[in-house]
Amino acid sequence: MAVSASLVKELRERTGLGMLECKKALKETDGDIDLAIENLRKASGLKAAKKADRTAAEGIIVAKAADDGSYGVIVEVNSETDFVARDQGFIDFAQSVLAKAFADKASDVAALVDEEIESARQALVQKIGENIGVRRVSCIEPEAGVVGLYLHSNNRIATLVELKAGNVELAKDVAMHVTAVNPQVVNPSDMPEAVVEKEKDIIKAQPDMAGKPENIVEKMMTGRINKFLKENSLVEQAFVKDPEVTVGQLVKKAEAEVKQFIRYEVGEGIEKAEEDFAAEVAAQVAASKA
Q1: Is residue 240 in some structural domain?
Q2: CATH at residue 166
Q3: pLDDT, tens only, 24-83
Q4: Rounded to whole angstroms, how far apart are CA atoms 180 and 182?
Q5: pTM value?
Q6: What is the CB-side half-sphere exposure of residue 117 using CA atoms within 13 A?
Q7: Domain identity same for 131 and 217
C-alpha cells in the first residue's frame, strides 16, 4: 500500500528514526504503526531512537564555499553535549554530510539525508549514546556575483554572504562582520513589519514616555525606531575591521552590493529542557532501593 506522509511523520516522531527507515517499516506493515514499531524493536533499530526525545542543542556548524565564490553551503549538525561535538567520529560524520551538501548544492535536509547518511547517523548514535541529527542546510549560488564564507574557529558560528559584483575577499570580510555582530537584516527596509511594531510597543511602554503628549511620543519613537533599524541592519553597521566606515560604505566603495547573508549559530532557536540534576540523582537512588 502507499504510505502517507502523515503516517511517516507520526512514526518519526514516535521513534526518532529517519524518514527512509520509517517509510520502509510502514510499507512492510501496510501502514500499521504499532506493528512497525514492534518490528523495529526486534531489529534493534530503536536502540538509537531511545535517545531521540533528548534535546540536541549542541554540535557544530560546517560550511564550504567554492574557491571562485560561485556558491557555498552551510550545515548544522547537532549533538546533545559539547563533549560529543568535539568527538572525532562526530566531526567526521558532519564533514561527510557537508561533502554531500556541497556536491549536491543542497538546501533541503530531507533531500540531503539519504539512506547512506541516515545509516551513518544511526551507527554513530548507537556508538556514542547521544541523540545526533542534521538540523538544517542552506546554499547560496548567485546568478551574478560571489559568495564569501567565514567560519568561526570554534565551529559554532558561520556565515555565507552573497555580493553582487565585488570579489571573494570582500565577501569574506562582510561574512566575518556578520558572524561577529549578528545583524538581523541587510537593509533597514528589510526589517519585518511585525518586528518594527513590536519594538514600537516596547518603546511606548518605557517609563520616560509616560504622560507626554502624543506628538512628542511619536517624535521620540521615530528617533528610537530609526536607531533600532540602524543598529540591526548590516549596511548601517560600523565595519568591525574599520569602525570609521559602515559595511554599506565599504561595499559601495568596491562598486558592489550585499544581496543576502545566511548566518548559522549552533542551537539557536532550540528550546533546551531545564534539567534538575539533584532530582535526577535522587530519583535514581530511590529506584535502586525499590
Answers
A1: no
A2: 3.30.479.20
A3: 889 999 988 888 877 776 654 445 455 555 677 899 999 999 999 999 999 999 999 899
A4: 6
A5: 0.75
A6: 22
A7: no
